Amino acid sequence: IGAFTESLDHLDLLFFAGIPVWYICMASSMPYVRIDAVAPFLKEDQSSQRLVRPGGFIVDCSDTLPPHKIIYDGLANKPDRYRKMAAYLDSLINDPAML
């Protein structure tokens, strides 16, 4: 999950919020950038919410049944996010039903 932007203001905001962000600009405006390889695009399977990589690897983006539990809803740069994630993982590890 992340964002693409052409705005330096949005780039700054998203980067410091901890959200992966890619800056889109003309190659001519970045003369010192070296591109070693170009990654292949994903192909979207129209029959379902699946993304198919050129090598055949499938990323399933469809909703799960039952839905995943929402552990945290809020900004990414808040420490409470990590406390709640740790507590949830701890509950999975220490749940006797999972053993």
Which structural traits does this protein have?
5 strands; alpha+beta; extended; transmembrane; 3-stranded antiparallel beta sheet; membrane; two-stranded parallel ribbon; 99 residues
What do you see in this structure?
- The protein has 99 residues and is an alpha+beta fold.
- The strands form two sheets. A three-stranded antiparallel beta sheet has the order 3-4-5, with no helix packed on it. Strands 1-2 form a two-stranded parallel sheet.
- Strand 1 (3-5), helix 1 (8-16) and strand 2 form a beta-alpha-beta unit.
- It has helices spanning 8-16, 79-93, and strands at residues 3-5, 21-23, 43-45, 50-52, 58-60.
- The relative contact order is 0.10.
- It has two helices and five strands; from the N terminus they run βαββββα.
- The chain has a domain at 1-37.
- The longest helix is centred in the last third of the chain and has 15 residues, at 79-93.
- The two termini are 31 Å apart.
Structure described in brief:
This protein is an alpha+beta fold. It is 24% helix and 15% strand.
Structural class: alpha+beta
Q: Major sheet, described briefly?
A: 3 strands, antiparallel
- Output the radius of gyration: 19 Å
Approximate helicity band: 10-25%
Order of helices and strands: EHEEEEH
Q: Beta-strand percentage?
A: 15-25%
Instruction: Give the total of beta strands.
Output: 5
Topology readout:
Blueprint: E1 3-5, H1 8-16, E2 21-23, E3 43-45, E4 50-52, E5 58-60, H2 79-93
